Amino acid sequence: MFSDVSVRDVKRDSSVVAWAEWSYDDCVDIAIANNPDIRRTIISILQAEQDIESAKDAYLPTVDFATSQGFTNYPKPADGRNANAYNSSYGVNASWTVWEGNARKYRLESSRLMRRQQELAGEDLVKELKLQILRAYLNIMYSHEAVAIAKQTLEVSTAQAERARKLMEAGRSSIVEVAQIESQRAQDEYNVVEAESSLASYKMTMKQLLALGIDDDFEIDRTAFPDGAVNELLPSMDATYHAAQSWLPELRSNELSKDIYANDVKVAKAGRMPNVALQGGLGTGYTSGGRSWSWQMSRGFNEYIGLSLSVPIFDGNKTRRAVAKANIAALEYDVNRDNLLDDLSQTIENLYIEARSARARYESGIARLAAMEETDRLVNRQFELGAVNPLDLLTAHNNLLSARLEQLQNKYMAILSTKTIQFYNTQQVSIP
């Protein structure tokens, strides 16, 4: 996507599409169009293109026009000579480097490689942006469901409080018991506010990633994940590692660094090579006190062409030091590569650990949640019959809420890990 950029791509897209519900891909498209770091990368790519053109221009000759105008005063002029003389010269000079150890060739190759590195830097930003949007998108989906659970829980506690008041009116419950249940209802009302606040916070995070303005608003597509999304089949860890190794921009950029370092060594060694240059020029001049200006200008016109050869013999070890430094710099490729591969292997391994752990917690939570729901149902029934006190009712109520939220969290943690692994393996994310 960065192979063909122009100045217009640097400008921010201030228009926001009025989709009813934004998909994950919609969010990614808007973020790529507006993200300031990506726009800065486009500027760097445009600058790198000018570096390529400058490297090509090094093959061109240089041509300049030079003139000098002067007056000379003779305090004691010889007989027949003017005390003041005016002289001028005019010349067009050209120079072209024929050969300089192929340094220009290697600089041009390196400038093209560095432009490609800027493209890969942009691709790496897009990769990180996609992962950040994935996390933010799933957090919003999670928060919407958490709000729904909180509101459902509030409805239950409101009904319980109403039931407790009726029991008190019938003389089967005390005002203390009613107050306890009313307190739980107030806590559940607060939980709704907290859940809605978390949702707003996650949406703000997404707005920052999309670089939206203060007046821009959006709503994501909340199509529910299918039941199998939590336990979606994962590729092997080794397959994901090798797949990611083949496409990750930072690894590919480091491979290009290897060639750039090699060119730096060649450019440094070119300092030992002869330099051949071709020069040429046209010139003429005029001096007062002699023939006319036109006569001197025509008769003084001359043409010059020459070839120069410069053979370095000893440059104070400058070339030797430059070659040594270039060879030392080339060692950085291996260090960077090892570090990048270590980071990648740790990232992949952590993703699989998180996915397996979240899946295990989710699976074990299914039975626990079912038990909590049944317990809550029975306790509510017993409370209506006056067989249990409010403390047992509130305990069952809070245990059920905690189990629901924990199960929801495990669900989305498992999905996040699964989708991230999917991205590293295929470069694609499908939601839902």
Structure description:
The chain has 432 residues and is α+β, with helices and mostly antiparallel strands. Helix content is 64%, strand content 12%. It has ten helices and four strands. The chain has helices at residues 24-34, 36-57, 103-169, 175-210, 237-247, 249-269, 293-299, 318-330, 332-384, 390-426; strands at 62-73, 84-99, 275-287, 302-310. The chain has a four-stranded antiparallel β-sheet with strand order 1-2-3-4, covered by helices on one side. Helix 1 (24-34) crosses helix 3, helix 6 packs antiparallel against helix 8 (318-330) and helix 9 runs antiparallel to helix 10. The protein is elongated, with a radius of gyration of 39 Å. The chain starts with 23 loop residues before the first helix and ends in a 6-residue tail after the last helix. The model has no long low-confidence stretch (mean pLDDT 88).
Descriptors:
single chain; 10 helices; elongated
Order of helices and strands: HHEEHHHHEHEHHH
Oligomer: single chain
> Quick one: overall form?
elongated
Helix content: 55-70%
* CA gyration radius, whole angstroms: 39 Å
Question: Hey, roughly how much beta strand do the residues contain?
Answer: 5-15%
β-strand number:
4
What summary fits the major beta sheet? 4 strands, antiparallel
Q: Count helical runs.
A: 10
Structural class: alpha+beta
Integer average pLDDT: 88
Explain briefly what this protein structure is.
With 432 residues, the protein is of the alpha+beta class. It has helices at residues 24-34, 36-57, 103-169, 175-210, 237-247, 249-269, 293-299, 318-330, 332-384, 390-426, and strands at 62-73, 84-99, 275-287, 302-310.
